[in-house]
Design goal:
Radius of gyration: 20 Å
Number of strands: 3
Strand content: 15-25%
Strand order of the largest sheet: 1-2-3
Number of helices: 4
CATH class: Alpha Beta
Number of domains: 1
Oligomer: single chain
Order of helices and strands: HHEEHHE
Length: 99
Amino acid sequence: MESKKEFETLALKQILDKVVNQKQLKRGMQNIRVCNSWEEVMGKNIFSYTDQVRYSNKILYVKIKSAPLKMELKFNLDLIKNKLNKHLEKSLIKKVVVY
């Protein structure tokens, strides 16, 4: 007795959507997107003073090399958070921590 399995043919877009929408992969891609948004929103000049950007539990942590720039950014954290969320087209960031 032969067992024949029938496979549904899917468009490449449907296959990629299924792969990308896996929970762990989706979360990882979202983290990368949020971290990349720092440079895209803040620009090359501020990014050149950035040592590290990481995203965890809806908080974006940004390590800045320059003390004066760090102080200036700390005064505008709400504005920065709003600009980043607008760029991301979602409210993914609840808080920005500059250190």
